[in-house]
Amino acid sequence: MWSLAKIAAHIKGEVIGDANFEVTSFATLRSAQEDQISFLSNTKYKKYLSDTDAGAVIVSEEFVDLVPNNAIVVDDSYVAYAKAATLLNPTHTIELGVDNSAVVAENVNIPDSASIGPQVVIESDVVLGENVVIGPGCIIQRACHIDANTRLIANVTLCHDVEIGQDVIIHPGVVIGADGFGIANNKGRWIKIPQIGGVKIGNNVEIGSNTTIDRGALEDTIIGNGVKLDNQIQVGHNTVIGENTVIAGCVGIAGSTIIGKNCAIGGGAGLGGHLELVDGVQLTGMTMVTKSISEPGVYSSGIPAEPTQLWHKNVVRYRQMSKLTDRVKELEKLISKK
Questions:
Q1: Domain boundary residue among 88, 109, 126?
Q2: Are residue 211 and residue 289 in the same domain, yes or no?
Q3: Does one domain contain both 108 and 80?
Q4: Contact of 73 with 61, CB cutoff 8 Å
Q5: Are residues 227 and 331 in the same domain?
Q6: CB count, 10 Å around CB of 306?
Q7: Cα 209–265–226 angle (5° rounding)?
Q8: Alpha helices, DSSP H only, in the chain?
């Protein structure tokens, strides 16, 4: 049980109502019970606020009068929710030491504060920092470095010569440091180009399930501090992602792409290779980038879903666009002669 006073102190909010009221967990406005706490950050859900059964709601000041019971008033309710949810859901205690089924090379030193789970394989010359957690089924190939307080949840593969910073979370199924897609056409036959670079991951990075980050062909693939990657993202070889950039699921990034700091890339976007995005670029979902972007701002492409019949008509019009352009040019010529 958590008192509203304790939660408010943690998120720097102000309690309106009973500061000693205790809650057990978070829930949505629609499903919450009186022993739970909820929040409102998206105005789309404002209609559920006045009828919620939640014992308390985290809101900004503009909505506090609509709360039917206790409230915690904050400047940013979504950030406050994130902090409060972390408080109410602490990380489970990790069992320290090396599981009997793990296979660890003789020259690897395991700190006493580390946890090595079942069926883990750690090859030679790997360096582990304090409080590192390697979950079940992970494979750490030779000469990898993992800094303090980093956690590999389960079934993560780090190929050789990968460097991971501090306070990193890597979710199940992630592969870091596999060969990039380097091939050359030799008289109609594809031959492999050795991928001899590495991968460097900064501090406070989170990498979602089944995301792949390829090693560099010559230089390293680099993921900056504070980067957050969603699930099922492909990061091509020699890509550089700047600090505090966030990338949603199913994004494909071709090799040698440079993404600046504080960028936000929506789900399903595709970035062609050898491009550069400056700091502060935002790409909406399904955007396709084929040229470098030199100015910060919001960029979009693609056609949103619409009824099939209308879509067919629009496709026909699109195919006629070239002819229409030629006709307009001819008309402009005729007008200019008059």
A1: 88
A2: yes
A3: no
A4: yes
A5: no
A6: 10
A7: 65
A8: 4-11, 77-88, 308-319, 321-337
Just list the catalytic residues: 237
Can you give the pLDDT of all 338 residues of the chain as single tens digits? Answer: 899 999 999 999 999 999 999 999 999 999 999 999 999 999 999 999 999 999 999 999 999 999 999 999 999 999 999 999 999 998 888 889 999 999 999 999 999 999 999 999 999 999 999 999 999 999 999 999 999 999 999 999 999 999 999 999 999 999 999 999 999 999 999 999 999 999 999 999 999 999 999 999 999 999 999 999 999 999 999 999 999 999 999 999 999 999 999 999 999 999 999 999 999 999 999 999 999 999 999 999 988 889 999 989 988 988 999 999 999 998 888 888 76
- In the chain, the number of structural domains is 3
Cα angle 318, 324, 329 (rounded to 5 degrees) comes to 140
Contact 281, 297 (CB under 8 A): yes
Bin 112: left if φ > 0, else alpha if -120 < ψ < 50, else beta. alpha
Domain, as residue range, for 258: 97-299
Q: How many Å apart are CA 284 and CA 200, to the nearest integer? A: 27
- Is residue 79 domain-shared with residue 184, that is, in the same domain? no
Pairing assessment for the beta strands 36-39 and 246-247 based on DSSP bridges: unpaired
Verify that 105 and 237 share a domain, yes or no: yes
Q: What are the residues whose beta carbons fall under 8 Å from the beta carbon of 271, sequence distance 6 or more?
A: 251, 252, 253, 254, 257, 259, 265, 277, 289
Q: Which of 183, 179, 149 is nearest to 162 (CA)?
A: 179
Domain match, 165 and 263 both: yes
Domain-located, residue 304: no
Tell me whether residue 194 is in a domain.
yes
Structure tokens at 56: 């308390």
